[in-house]
Amino acid sequence: MRLNKFIAETGFCSRRKADELINEGRVTVNKHEAIIGMDVKPEDVVKIDGERVKLNTRYEYYILNKPKRVICSNEDKFGRRLAVDFIKSRARLFTYGRLDFMTEGLIIISNDGEVYNHVMHPRKKLYKSYIAKVSREIEDKDIEALQHGVVIDGKRTAPAKVKKIDKKELRIAIFEGRNRQIRKMLETLGYNVNSLKRIKVGELTLGNLQVGEYRALNEDEIKYLKSL
């Protein structure tokens, strides 16, 4: 098994992050510094920053309805609340499909490092759906602009799926994952975003979860996640 896949399957991090750790010289295999692309066996001793990591025998998968003012990270130097803190589990958990500090809604949390490749890798082109409430009435020409793509940070976005819900409210679905993308898309068109909530990732939905609540994925949802 490739080392980056082994690390991902321990639940420590994604394959991409594992490669970064290997390049930084933070990974050893049987007391020797690891190299990108090497293979390992289950009995090999793999350590990251001196701590051994082992293959998981049980993976956990959750959906959290993330509140505003919560961080999608495993640590925060300012002491802000973390999304993973909402989950009652002893497993080393990570968030997948990050939401910014002021955005609420669906976030996937798991100790399975392969979730990144199933859900977040750009080649998957998996749509994520949001409800945005903005500062003024939404014009039809701006809906068309979003559907064709707008330029943010010097690069045009991929076409979005957009539906107007009310005068100042729309549903928008994108498959890209650029930083604060929807906020920037709407701000480029002259709208201030009053609230933003993610309601769907692929076929995974919040269901009846209230803000701050979470649930474990059922068997069908886990199969769907792994099929992506």
Automatic annotation (TrEMBL):
<dbReference type="InterPro" id="IPR020103">
    <property type="entry name" value="PsdUridine_synth_cat_dom_sf"/>
</dbReference>
<feature type="domain" description="RNA-binding S4">
    <location>
        <begin position="1"/>
        <end position="58"/>
    </location>
</feature>
<dbReference type="InterPro" id="IPR018496">
    <property type="entry name" value="PsdUridine_synth_RsuA/RluB_CS"/>
</dbReference>
<keyword id="KW-0413">Isomerase</keyword>
<dbReference type="InterPro" id="IPR036986">
    <property type="entry name" value="S4_RNA-bd_sf"/>
</dbReference>
<dbReference type="GO" id="GO:0003723">
    <property type="term" value="F:RNA binding"/>
</dbReference>
<dbReference type="InterPro" id="IPR000748">
    <property type="entry name" value="PsdUridine_synth_RsuA/RluB/E/F"/>
</dbReference>
<dbReference type="InterPro" id="IPR020094">
    <property type="entry name" value="TruA/RsuA/RluB/E/F_N"/>
</dbReference>
<dbReference type="GO" id="GO:0120159">
    <property type="term" value="F:rRNA pseudouridine synthase activity"/>
</dbReference>
<comment type="similarity">
    <text>Belongs to the pseudouridine synthase RsuA family.</text>
</comment>
<dbReference type="InterPro" id="IPR042092">
    <property type="entry name" value="PsdUridine_s_RsuA/RluB/E/F_cat"/>
</dbReference>
<keyword id="KW-0694">RNA-binding</keyword>
<protein>
    <recommendedName>
        <fullName>Pseudouridine synthase</fullName>
        <ecNumber>5.4.99.-</ecNumber>
    </recommendedName>
</protein>
<dbReference type="InterPro" id="IPR050343">
    <property type="entry name" value="RsuA_PseudoU_synthase"/>
</dbReference>
<dbReference type="GO" id="GO:0000455">
    <property type="term" value="P:enzyme-directed rRNA pseudouridine synthesis"/>
</dbReference>
<dbReference type="Pfam" id="PF01479">
    <property type="entry name" value="S4"/>
</dbReference>
<dbReference type="InterPro" id="IPR006145">
    <property type="entry name" value="PsdUridine_synth_RsuA/RluA"/>
</dbReference>
<dbReference type="InterPro" id="IPR002942">
    <property type="entry name" value="S4_RNA-bd"/>
</dbReference>
<dbReference type="Pfam" id="PF00849">
    <property type="entry name" value="PseudoU_synth_2"/>
</dbReference>
